[in-house]
Protein: DUF433 domain-containing protein
Organism: Hymenobacter negativus
Amino acid sequence: METAASAAHPRITLDPNICHGQPTVRGLRYPVQNVLEYLASGMTEAEILADYPDLEAEDLRACQAYAA
């Protein structure tokens, strides 16, 4: 049962069957924590999007907003 983490963050979803219930991006197997770690390590938005073509620029911003 996939649900949005909140109305303010509709791109961030929670599903106990995906990534052990961690917040993920749009129900994909990209945990928010991993995306934040990529950004914190210095990867640029373009590098992340090139390495992970399922992600969109808005997904990266949604992860940052969710963490805030």
Q: What stands out?
A: The chain is about 40% helix and 20% strand. The mean pLDDT is 93.
